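Tutorial handout. Part one gives the primary structure; part two gives the three-dimensional structure as tokens.
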Amino acid sequence: SPRTWLCLSVLALTAVACLPGKRDNTPPADAAESDGLAGDGVVADAASDGGADDGAAADVTADTSTEDAAPLDTGPAPLPKGCSVDTDCQGFTVSPCTMAACDTDSGLCTASPAANGTACTVADACVVNATCKGGACVGEDKDCDDGNACTKDSCAAFAGCKNKPVAVPCDDGNPCTLADACTESTCKGVDRDCVSVDVCRVGSCNPKSGECSFADFTKADVPCDDNQPCTKGDACDGKGSCVGFTMSGKDCDDGKPCTKDVCNAKLGGCVNVAVAGKGMCSDGDPCTSNDCDAGKCVTTKADCDDGNPCTTDSCTANGDNKTCVNEPASIGACADGMPCADEANCDKGVCKTIKATDCDDGNVCTKDTCDPMQGCVFAPTSASCNDGDGCTTGDACKDGKCAGTAKDCADGDPCTLDLCDPIKVTCSNPLAPEGSACGAGKVCKLGKCEAGT
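Part two.
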């Protein structure tokens, strides 16, 4: 806003002190009060000691509460100086924006406002372009903006512009930086990270758009991963692509003879499938047989057993071939190899029975024999027998068991019990319990079947 300045002059001197209106700073004490004239361009009433010709003016107190651009009093007061012509009033300037002239009627110098727009000067460095307006010196605030977003710009009365560094977000004008902030009056940002996720491409920031570009290629032979599980030796080709060599089953060899080694991209790479089969693996010993079973190599000693418990069986390696040796034995029990012998001993390679196996199972319904290969055999028969129960008749063997048909002791009376004594082998028919059911709606009463009540 425009600023109004009050200027005082010391009588008989041309030096002028200009004070600001409505500012927070306090002017020097000697500028607020001086001998001379006071008022916003208005001449104060002066008390003279009668010596007006000596140029001494009465003491006048300046009014520092004047508002910006306050209008002047329109009635100029006489200056304490006698005059006859205007030139007699030269040197008595009340303010930069007032003019002294001689009032021929009173014979005193009077003050009147200078023409609006007349240039004037103020002492505050924070005011520029001051001109007279209504007798007051009015100026504009000085623009202290240094164009730097990293400073706080202000103007101190009588001191001038101050540009204090501040730490605030800013824009350094570079699209390829982020998180721009002020540091020591300078706006700086962090370089945008344009690292490529593709190792075969190089990222860079476009200084015009601020966008990352990955148009440049990594040099050839730089290791990479083509994300193909069945390739090896992956490397950049210098044209922005990662390529590798197709893997074979040999590349997936797990060193185990009982697995089939392949590379299957759908299954994620190398697959080692367990296999089974005779003779698919070897330990190099001809006296052993080696077979794959569920992916493992199972080793078995060569089968040189001749089935005779009275021979000592062994295998002898002859290069890549084997030879079975079966030496007769004359000492040692051999019953383990003789199912029909409880006791047997070897005699020059022959197993001789000392005590035969007893195959009698005590069951009259089986035929007991001994098979040299199987041992005891118990074959069912259909011979007659006795099951030991006196209450059965027609006892006979069936499925290796003796069983008969229950004896019939029924007497046809519903009010008697039909019983058989297996020891006495006799039937008995005692009365049924009183009230026992003996037909539809009938019960037994004293051994007779009568209607129930």
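Part three, for discussion. DSSP finds one helix and 35 strands in the chain. The helical segments are 29-32.
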